Amino acid sequence: MNELRMYVEQLFQNRVLTSDTIELKEEIYGNLIARYEDYVAQGLSHEEALRRTKESMTSIDDVMSGEEAMKNENLNANQNPNANVTEQMPIAVSQPGAAPPAGDPAPKRRKPWVITAAAAAVILVLICGVAIGMNIMPKQTQGQVPEATVTVDDTTVDDTAQDVQKTEAEAATVEQEPAEEQATEPATSTDDQTAEAKTSTTQKTTTSNTTTLRSMPRLTDDDGPRERQATEALADEVLNSPLSTLTKYASTKPSSADNRAAFVRALPLGDYVTASSFSNGTLAIDYSSVNHNIDGDAIDLALAYDVVAIMATYGDSVDTVKIELHESDDHSYDVDTYIFDRAMVEDMLASVSSNEYTKITGSMLESKNAWNKVFNNVATYRFFDNVTDYAELDY
């Protein structure tokens, strides 16, 4: 909720925003939301639950100092790897001719005849072994190599031949497959607690040299066939949204009404667009009568994808995307409003991508491979849930 979001922002207002502090901020916000919901579930009013939640976290100094202490401890451990190794006492080495330490019994010396008898026994055993080996080995004609006789079951030979033929056939089939179809699927990010518990949906797109998979969590909850069908339809629309839609309008301006209208209608949720406008760097879009059967996570994913796609396509011409969304079962005055500021969206994307993407630019559209890598970060639950939650206004 926005009241807790603003409260967390106040706690961090004098902090430098790095990937670590942003991640810590989102973790604290999530904990406060959970605490607030627990208070409400216990029967407390909204005001009382909010007050107690804020009192549970009045400062982040202790948290930040704890984080810093942990980092210093890890740093010291890395710099002094032998700091905790138990010091071993030096082992005394006896010098030749030195007397044994006092109190220790003098080593016993074996008698010479015992040593001689043992050596003779060893030699006798070796001689017997050589003689037995010479009698067992077959006599061979000098200069000739003996033929090895091996009895093999006919059935085994036939089975082996069939296995060899099958292996050769499989190898030939693999050689005929395109290299792009043999590429290994990259590991899917597991940043999101919710996404980890849901089945992943993937789509393969290929280029001449590489194969990149689009991946995202399956968003359908089993709340009935209507919701499942509507949610899967929108999720598939996002998953299969082509790069060509973006590159087609990359050379246009958001101020061109016809091109802008055609562009936003070609994006996911475009069937519900009723109006769009552009003024002073802000592109506004109205979505009306959105199917209420669509799961909220799917709507958040579509909005997050559309915003990043718009900012990448139009570049610095668009600083802000304002969205007003009305669902089909809501009153005409019940409208959800979102304000996506470019700096906020870029910070969120930098956090989930480990600073691989700190700016949203047209370079993301250079190839399918490049855009699919961006897509895989946008489609993480951690990104699309946080960015839409942060952008949504709470009236």
Describe, in plain words, how this protein is organized in 3D.
By secondary structure, the chain is an alpha+beta fold. The chain folds into two domains: 138 residues, no CATH class; 153 residues, no CATH class. Helices cover 50% and strands 11% of the residues. The protein contains 14 helices and six strands. The strands form two sheets. Strands 3-4-5-6 form a four-stranded mixed sheet. The protein is extended and about 110 Å long. About 24% of the residues have low confidence.
Q: Main traits of this protein?
A:
4-stranded mixed beta sheet; 395 residues
In short:
The protein is an alpha+beta fold and 395 residues long. The chain has 14 helices and 6 strands. About 24% of the residues have low confidence.
Strand residue content: 5-15%
Strand order of the largest sheet: 3-4-5-6
Measured as a percent range, the helix fraction is: 40-55%
Structural class: alpha+beta
Shape: extended
Count of DSSP E strands? Answer: 6
Number of continuous helical runs: 14
Q: Cα distance, first to last residue? A: 11 Å
Sheet of most strands: 4 strands, mixed
State the low-pLDDT regions, or none: 81-110, 136-161, 169-200, 204-211
Topology (SSEs and partners):
Layout: H1 2-11, H2 19-41, H3 46-55, H4 61-79, H5 112-136, H6 154-176, H7 193-196, E1 200-206, E2 211-217, H8 225-239, H9 243-249, H10 257-266, E3 273-279, E4 282-290, H11 296-314, E5 320-327, E6 336-341, H12 342-352, H13 368-378, H14 381-391
Helix pairs in contact: 1-2, 2-3, 2-12, 8-11, 11-14, 12-14
